[in-house]
Amino acid sequence: MDMGTKRVAGIIAQVVLLLSSSYGTTGEGAGGWSPVTSDRYQWLEVDLGERTKITAVATQGRYGSSDWLTSYLLMFSDTGHNWKQYRQEDSIGSFPGNTNADSVVQYKLQQPAMARFLRLIPLDWNPSGRIGLRLETYGCPYTSDVVSLDGSSSLVYRLSPGPRRLSRDVVSLKFKTVRNSGTLLHAEGEGGLSLSLELERGKLLLLQLRQGSSSEPRRLASLGSLLDDQHWHYIAVERRSSHLNLTVDKHTERVQIPAEFSHWDIKQLRVGAVQSPDSQETVASKRNFHGCLENLLYNGLNLIELVKHKDHRVTVMGNVTFSCAEPVSIAVTFTGPQSFLKLPGTMASTSAGVSMGFQFRTWNKAGLLVTFALPQEGGVVWLYLSEARLRLQIHKAGRTLLELTAGSALNDGQWHSVELNSRRGRLSITVDKEEGGSAQASPSPPVTIERHLFFGGCPTEDDRQECRNPFNVFQGCMRLLTLDNKNVDLIMVQQKELGIYSNLQIDMCGIMDRCSPSRCEHGGLCSQSWTIFHCNCSDSGYSGATCHSSVYEQSCEAYKHNGNTSGHFYIDVDGSGPIKPQLVYCNMTEENTWMVIQHNNTELTRVRSSSGRNQHLVHFNYSTEEEQLSAAISQSEHCEQELSYQCRKSRLLNTPEGSPLSWWLGGPGRGHVQTYWGGAQPGSQQCACGLQGDCLDPQHYCNCDADRVEWTEDSGLLTHKESLPVKSLVLGDIQRPGSEAAYRVGPLRCHGDKNFWNAAFFDKETSYLHFPTFHGELSADISFLFKTTASSGVFLENLGIKDFIRIELSSSTQVVFSFDVGNGPLEVRVESSILLNDNRWHRVRAERNIKEASLRLDELPAATQEAPTDGHFHLQLNSQLFIGGTASRQKGFRGCIRSLQLNGITLDLEERARITPGVRPGCPGHCSSYGSFCQNGGRCVERANGFHCDCGLSAYTGVFCHTEVSASFKSGTSVSYTFKEPYELSRNSSALPSSIYSDMTLRGENVSLSFRTNQSPAVLFYVSSYYREYLALLINKHDKLEVRYKLDSSRDVEVLRSRVRSLANGQLHTVTIRRLTDSVSVQIDQNAREDFNLTSDGEFNAIKSLVLGKVQGSDDLDPDLARLGSVGFAGCLSVVQFNSISPLKAALLHPDTSPVIITGPLVQSNCGSSASANPYAAENTHHLSDQSGSVGSGQPLVNAIRTDSALIGGVIAVVIFVIVTGLAITARFLYRKKETYRNQEVKGVKQEDSPDFPFNNQADSQNVSCENPKEYFI
């Protein structure tokens, strides 16, 4: 009922004013209520006469005064005891009050409260006046049917026999109890199957049981916490065909139920005590429910009302009453550092000793429970929690006389009993009686109380030093305090008639479970103390205070632009969204960055004819889940998958007019039937040759449909994203005699990230884009990249009535994240040491959750701001979301914003920018930000979406020109690079890399290379000319480097000798030589540069060729150099560069288009890598061809389905290769045979090959690694 429709009659007349002390009140009739003393120990209590549905409260100051409240708490109770604080949004404890004495401030309760008693506790008031209040409460009478069960009583509802088959069953009820365990509801059905709702340690469990089974019940769900607090809790169970919706109070969990329950009908509902297995009687047990039930409904039928009317369908067992008899148990809450309770020591201590007991519950591992001084000088007893265990310590004169320990895990939020007894020289402490533990000391020092006992902590002002606390204060609840076996009347304490206290909440337990429901997202583990909770995000793939933000990038494209190279990566396609991260292979060796997702059979697989089988059905299981696949395909710009069919007497699609003989299923879910083949268009029922018009038989649209006895093939790429990936394959023409076929479905390959490059350019401060309201009530994360030349501007703003969220560039070095969730603006700032208006991309990541707000800028440490401990949870916004500006059109942003994501969802800036004046879609110019990734002379080339590293002028290769090009040389290996005139090269320049151009006459050189060898002397490098001039680089017999220049054929050679020793030690060395006319510098590794001067004219004329390795047949050489050159070089050469020429790279990567001649075996390898220290080395070893490899947590990397023949073939191939490596001609022949055999056998033809099966399976592009040796024999 709306709060304004009905006000409870006579509420004001029924107000009973109760004060926390005997100070009384000032009564001024209509003037309102005001206590004599204005402090936080006062309250106003309202007795509504009966349970009432309270929907709102309104406050006003005292009439004609300066007395009003500015904030207050609301408490509710059914009995006038065991109060429960009302919290809006489960967090805000206090309500804002008035600002003057006359205006009325009314608050509608977000969730109505059902109670008879209401208590208002003033927190703050007008500092110029005193506490003053006029109060109105709004609501309507609350009627309900209540029943009380005593632990041995129960209600049994038997359903009418016969078929029912309801589409849904709903059971709902409210309950309250002080017991933390007991069976609440038991539903029995057909086949001995049953479902049970049970309380266990204050949590509600949904269990599946099977009659007659000895196995433990299966837990289906757990929900709620602290349900033994003697307050009403709402439960609803809604059963549908395949799932249950379980609700506890305001929280609902969807539970998938076993398939056997899909046609399960309930035969009987039992509420309360459990029935004995061998009788019709209930048995008394701690597992039985003891407490009250209210409004027990089954499919809308009120079962308690049926009991009242003695309906035969409901059977009552045991003692059942139609009212709720509640035990009165006064609890006290120690809220914080200033909380303590001081009681007279004479209550617990006699001449015979000390006896005390109490119960407590807490989330904290440590805290003082009770302490008192001993009559002996300086003696003190501490009973405290440490590491969640109970410890007792007697201390005197600076030393510990006695220490006892009992119990464990006492910070679990459950009630635990403690007893301390000291009698006749024997001291004992007991936790939880027989269920817990105890410790004792005999004999023990005499224990009596000198003056007072202190519970929870010590007064801050204690002139007598009666209380000392070297431990943490206690935060939690206590109840059932007994001293000398007599109960302590805490109501007398509350009325200040007994003891002294501070900062206590009496007659209530204010414990909260901050981990139920858990605020930790994505599987993070929640733990808590009294005031805060903590999320352990280890192994979840997410980070932050609530495990909200993904630690992984959203695509391979994003990893590339972080500077990563090819390898396996986890990608999280929706960032902080619900889709889990997935492991994919990122191939960055091409211009496009490919994401590769494997399935269980990417091999070429043979299918033979089989009588009695008309079709061959194959299913493909991918390494990622369906939701991950769909999202990855959706965000990619292009996806493709190879589909190949190789056939002999096995037709494929028949004709376009007839039904296809074979088809495949692709797309979301199980896939949709597709009747076209690789290389053709969807719906065409054609193959690639039909589209191109070059099929073997013009009458058909596939080569295989020609039905020939020779092997033929239909293959191509599937590129229609809506049809990908391929889920199943059905081959239909395999049953005829002589029919043979083989199929291959390659891995799914996608490139591009539509979200990563989605950008908009704002060219005016008044321009902006607007989007629908951002909904980030509990958790909000915002990430984007920006670049600008302006020094300030608002990136993003969204407003509410009071709440707002904003991110802005406040200065050229500072980004500010600010927001308000109803308790005042908060700001998080990050200061950069570099200018942010440098027209380079900068990344901003902001997150706000119920624990904290954080802001990250680029790779700087995150700045954080803790949320108020008792603040709002929900961010409530209602305006449009403004990007690049504000609603007021002031302080707008000028520049580019890219890849803007809110809670993992990318906003399409480009689409909105196309229709918005002052904003342009896209934002070019990426090399200024990413150009530094291009290493070793690589050139950054701009692309519309991103950049590309051109390695043409570099001796390196790879996506960032960082991969060394290395080769192993043997003594007979020679690589000769012939220089040509520019006009000769220009004819075919389009087909040649730029690294093979040269000038013929040089006045200087830049030479660099790396080598590794144990040979000396040895020639590393030789450049000749048409005029008998040359340059040679060699290691002499003393293991030192020599550079020999002969730049004038009429003069002797000039020898430049380095002082660096031991270069033929098998280690990697790097040499750089630079000459400018007659000045030469030589640097080896990290040694000092050595400078030399030549006596010649400094020109190297008409250079002819460059030789690496063995120098053969040159009449221009000096005899000594000719002798050394004929020996050859055995070792490793890497990244050889001569000016802009990379001869080794040309020989290994462009042998057909470069002027190189290779003699002898040349093996490409990674021998020039400085090894293991290379951060990319380990990454590059994990290729999809490594069948048994694993990454991270041990997930499988690739399809592991291999046949024995494939494994044996691989072993045989390796053995053959090892045996014949010494024979050059034979090696060449066997090498080719090995490749053929390996391609046909190892690559996955799963049945023995016939000699006329000519097709080789082509390896995936990602299977080719620079670490796998390639041999060239000339």
Automatic annotation (TrEMBL):
Database matches in InterPro entries: ConA-like_dom_sf, EGF, FA58C, Fibrinogen-like_C, Fibrinogen_a/b/g_C_dom, Galactose-bd-like_sf, Laminin_G, Neurexin-related_CASP
Keyword Thylakoid: no
Chain spans, region Disordered: 1242-1263
Domain Fibrinogen C-terminal: 547-599
Keywords for the protein's UniProt record, in alphabetical order: Disulfide bond, EGF-like domain, Membrane, Repeat, Signal, Transmembrane, Transmembrane helix
Spans through the membrane: 1206-1231
GO cellular component terms, semicolon-separated: membrane
Main location: membrane
Domain F5/8 type C: 1-140
Organism domain of life: Eukaryota
Location in or out of the cell: Membrane
Family in the record: Belongs to the neurexin family.
Descriptive protein name: Contactin-associated protein-like 4
